Amino acid sequence: MALRGLTVNSSGQLLRDGVRFRNIGLNYGGAITRIYSQPSNVACAYTPAAEQDAMLAVAVSMKVKVLRIKVTPFWPAQWTFGVNGGVAGVAATAGDRAAHYAKIDAFVAKCRALDIGVIMCLFFRHASVADLAGQTLRTGWLSGGATRTYAQAITQEIVTRYLTEDAVLGYEFSNEVNNYNDATDATRGGYPSLNTSYGTPASYSAANDMFVGSELAGVFSWWYSIVQAIDPQRICMTGNGANSYTQPGGTAGVATPMNAWCKEAVRDNPLNVGSMHFYGNIGYTSQNFRGLNSVLTGARHWHKQNGRGFVLGEFGNQPWAITNISSAGGVATFTVANTCPIEAGDSFQVGGTTTFDGSYSVSTINAAGNTITAPCAIAGSWSGNVKGLQYASGARVAKMIDDIYYSDTDVALFWMLDGDTGRPIWEAIDYPGNEAQRAAILSGNTRFGW
To answer: SS3 of 323, please?
Structure first.
C-alpha cells in the first residue's frame, strides 16, 4: 500500500495522494491524554471516548481535515503510568507501551472514519524524556545515552506502527523547543515548567538545559534521520514557535529587515517542512506588521528556497490576561498584562470576572497596548488576574485566514480544540461565545475547496 500522509513537492507545496492539500486545521492536544485536568501523580488521565467523539464532531462541522495531536503526555509521572505502563524511568519495553499505543490506535481509527488526518507530536514536553532518564536536557539530547536511546525506541515504534495508516499525515518532534535555544536569561526565554510531584527536577539552568546555536538543529537532524529511515515520504516538523532571539541587542520578537529572523528559522528547522507558531503579530497594529501575511510569506519563501514545505503550527486564539477593570460615567478601562493586539473599533469579549463579563467595542487603546477603554453600562471595579479578554473575534479570525490564504500557506492549525473542563476560558474553539470563530474557519475551509 502506498504511503498516503502529507508529502512535499518541488514548489514547497503539501500534497496528499498527489493533490495539493490546503486546510485550516486545529490543535487538539488533549486527544489522547489530559493536558489541563491531571488529578493524580500516580496515574495518566486519558481522554474519554465520548469527549473525543464530541470534539471530532466540532472539527467535522468546520470541514477540518487535519489535527495536531500529542501522542504522549506532559509530565514525567504521566509518562511513567501511561506510556510506560507503570515502569519507572526509561526501562520500559515495547510490550509495556502496548496499552498506551492502543489508545492512540483507537483515536486514529475514529479520525480515519471521518477523513481527518493527524500530525503526531511525539515529545510535546521534551524535558520529560530527559527527566525520566535522569539526565539534563543538554547531556541527554545532545549525546548518546539513555535519553536518546529511549526517544529513538519510541520514535521507531510509532513510525513503524503507522507506516501504512491513511489517517497519519506526518510527525513532529516537540513543541516550541526553540524557546530554549540561545535564551540564556529570564528576559529572553523561559526554562521548562516545573512540577516536582509529577517527576521534574527542582530547577533547570542555562548551562545544563538550554541549547546553544546550532545544537538544537543537530537534535532535530538526529531525530529526523530515525523517522526517514522508516518513512522517507511523510512530512516531519520541529514544532518550533516563532524565532524570538535575533533582534539587535537580543530583544525578543520579529525585526525588520526579516532576513536574520528567517535565516534562524531555516537553521532551526532542518526537516522537510519548516514550522512556526505565531501569535504576537496577529493584531493589525503591532510592530508595523499588518497581520500575518508578511510574516508567513517571508517564512514560506525562505523554507521553499531550502527545499521545504511550510506549516503554521499554531495561530489564533490565546486570550489576554486582565489585571484590573474600572468603570464610571459609561466608560470602562481595562488593564491587561501585556501589549494586546487589538485596535479602536474592534470587538472583544470578557469572561472570568462575573461582574464585567460580556461583549465590548474598543474606543481607545494606549501606545503600550495595555490599557483599553470601551463603552460600559456597568459601574464599579474589579481586580485580579484572569486570562479572560477574548480579542480574537470572528472578524479578526477571518482576517487571519485571509492572510493565510494569500501568503500561500498550505496548512495552518488554529489554537485550539479541547473538551477538558479544566481548559482555559475562551481558548477552545467550541467554548461558548466562540461561534463566530467557528464560522470563520468553516468559511475558510470552504474557500480552500472542502
So the answer is: strand
